Amino acid sequence: MTTAVNLETEVWRALDAVLDPELDQPVTDLEFVSRVAVDRSDVQVDLRLPTYFCAPNFAYLMVADAHDAVAELPWVRRVRVRLLDHFASEEINAGVAAGDGFDAAFPGLAAGELEELRTTFLRKAHLAYQEQVAQQLLRSGTGLEQLVQVRLGNLPPSQALDRLRRRRDQLGLPSGPDAPLLVDDDGAPVPVEGLSARLRFARTTRVSIEGNAGWCRGLLDTRYGPGGGTARPGLH
User: Where do the MIP18 family-like domain residues begin and end (predicted)?
Assistant: First the structure.
């Protein structure tokens, strides 16, 4: 019994690394994981989303990432991830199980694979975390001229900084202590010219991500009831 509980805990921890690409939050925190079942080396994971019509490309990414995250556990021999209560559940579940990609799951309908979409939202999240950290410095009196000189190694630990570093690693951008806080999508330092406008755009991006996350949490609660979207031990 203790071993089974430990294995289930390992699965939940693996799923903590799976993000909703649009909301940049773990599917576990969003309570999209409704069930984890472990039978020796076989694992089944059930996912639910806030609506029946959530975008199938986002849904496919989450199901595929959940499958891959669990499959990487060394003791897992077979994993099945099911998306429930979604208009494209059958196609998505079959496509992920077959490992043939999004195009094969939706022949004639999909326009290319999803890596470009994933990169687009990683860049949005990276921009939002830069703005979040930058705003903390501006509120403490740092000027724009100083802001463009700030290095990651000069910053105090924070959740936003941790997330910013992770997104840079995923995007292949500099994340070491000497890396500038403010860089563009290619990793080049951002100049002070135009910085105010860039920060305003970044703030809009951050507010949009946070607003969508709150909206989705509300929809999930409406659909399944508060606490009805997850079965993680100890969460409720």
Answer: 8-81
Q: Which amino acid is at 65?
A: D
Instruction: Give the H/E segment covering residue 96.
Output: helix 89-98
For 52-75, letters b (16+ CB in 10 Å) and e give eebebbbbbbbbbbbbbbbeebee
Which residue, 86, 13, 82, is CA-closest to 234?
13
Convert the pLDDT of each residue in 109-130 to its tens digit: 666 678 888 999 999 999 999 9
Q: What is the pTM of this model?
A: 0.86
Dihedral sign, Cα of residue 19, residue 20, residue 26, residue 31: negative
Tell me, letter by letter, the H, E, C secondary structure of 210-228.
Answer: HHHHHHHHHHHHHHHCCCC
Instruction: Look up residue 125 and give its two tokens.
Output: 């999240």
Q: Specify which residues 85 forms β-bridges with.
A: none
61-94 residue pLDDT tens: 999 999 999 999 999 999 999 999 999 999 999 9
